[in-house]
Amino acid sequence: MTITITSRPRRNRVSDSIRSLVRENSLQVTDLIMPLFIIEGNNIRQPVESMPGISRLSLDLIVKECQTLHQLGVPAVVLFPALDDAQKDTRASESVNANGLYQRTIAAIKTAVPEMTIMTDVAMDPYSSDGHDGYVTENGVIDNDITLQILAEMSVSQARAGADVIAPSDMMDGRVGYIREALDAAGFTHVGILAYSAKFASAFYGPFRDALESAPKYGDKKTYQMDPANVKEAIRETLLDIDEGADMVMVKPGLPYLDVIRAVSEVSEVPVAVYNVSGEYAMIKAAGMKGWIDYQKVVLETLLGFKRAGANMILTYHAKEAAEWLNE
Questions:
Q1: b/e map of 7-38 (b: 16 or more CB within 10 Å)?
Q2: What share of the chain is helix, strand, coil (3-state, %, to 5)?
Q3: What are the tens digits of pLDDT across the range 285-316?
Q4: Torsion angles phi and psi, residue 169, rounded to 5
Q5: The pairing of beta strand 165-168 with beta strand 117-122
Q6: pTM
Q7: Ordered domains of the chain (ranges, CATH)
Q8: Are residues 269 and 38 in contact, defined by beta-carbon separation less than 8 angstroms?
Q9: Tens digit of each residue's pLDDT (9 = 90 or more) over 177-232
Q10: Catalytic machinery residues
């Protein structure tokens, strides 16, 4: 019996060297951004129970962690503060404290590792007694425009401390343009904005909220975070943020939203980030600890999947260990 095959794609898979030559996407250490949780104190490491391998770190240990990450080639970190309830109020006043934990941490990292890009989270929830990303009125409504004023003040305070990129994660309407104007007016035209443009109201954020103890005290975030069913809305949000001055845009979460990453990357004129969020990390970590998957291979395959979908950079709790593997 004669078999006639006119095309043999397997010829491009016959060896490691050929596979490397025809590979369409690649994962590099320079694609990675490490999220870090900050707490007050000295020489304190508090493990996050729902995120094995991840801890809240005091300022001194955060600086050491950034030095290690820099040595591994990780180019950027994004910071999140874990504050006591006594430091929280309805207007997130602690967020603009020039001597606050967050601002002191930014300055300390910049002094110790000036080459490290510091990205800062801009939203009210870590500082808010309500646990929401926006200002809550007496009748329980999230007031968009009052929130913008607070976010702008927060952004300028972070820029003064040494932030390189401001990352508003609140999903309020018009916040990118408002923050851009505030930064420029304060003389920080060089500070970039990474907009959480397509941030969905996801069930995958649970471990993160455990880490910061920042869950809403009542209600949910569905009036400002996006409906997980929508893709066109994500594109609209992205284009609005770009028009308002975003230097980079983000899709969050990652794994359940690969189609959104692809859709956003096809219309965006600026780099696209993805946040491989805490729940995604926890699932893979738990399965790896159980021995149900090859943890290292699954992590690297997951991160490569984000690149294949169209992401230029990846915020991931796997960043440090992935950098160690990629450097081997």
A1: eeeeeeeeeeeeeeeeeeeebebebbbbbbbb
A2: 45, 20, 35
A3: 999 999 999 999 999 999 999 999 999 999 99
A4: -115, 15
A5: parallel
A6: 0.95
A7: 26-326 (3.20.20.70)
A8: no
A9: 999 999 999 999 999 999 999 999 999 998 887 777 766 776 788 889 999 999 99
A10: 199, 252
